[in-house]
Amino acid sequence: MSQNTDQLFKEAFEKASETIIKLPPDIRLRLYAYYKQATLNYSHDFVYKEVDLIRGFKFNAWKQVTHLTQEEAKILYIDLVKSLKL
Q1: 1 in helix, strand or coil?
Q2: Which residues are in the ACB domain (predicted)?
Q3: Which of 14, 41, 52, 84 has the fewest CB atoms within 10 Å distance of its CB?
Q4: Per-residue model confidence as pLDDT tens digits over 33-65
């Protein structure tokens, strides 16, 4: 992982976390999925117990991006935040 990507990812996360703009649910789910993959790197051995519908949606969004590397997920997160012009 490049230090530049890590710094850009951190800055993008801060922008997304601090925004007062109400983002649509699909955008929030994509941000969540990219963030989880970028920081935790989904393991196919991960055991998940569905507690409620929201967690189910979040888990599904994350599972859809598990083919990405952590670096790719960071870059997509950065690009998505840039496209939102926060």
Answers
A1: coil
A2: 5-86
A3: 52
A4: 999 999 986 655 454 554 567 788 888 899 999
Name the phi and psi angles at 31, rounded to 5. Answer: -60, -45
From CA 33, how far away is CA 2, in angstroms rounded? 21
State whether residue 5 is helix, strand or coil: helix
Domains located in the chain, CATH noted: 3-84 (1.20.80.10)
Tokens matching residue 54: 């929201």
Cα torsion 67, 18, 85, 60: sign: positive
The structure tokens listed for 41 are 């790197």
Instruction: Give phi and psi for 67, each to the nearest 5.
Output: -75, -15
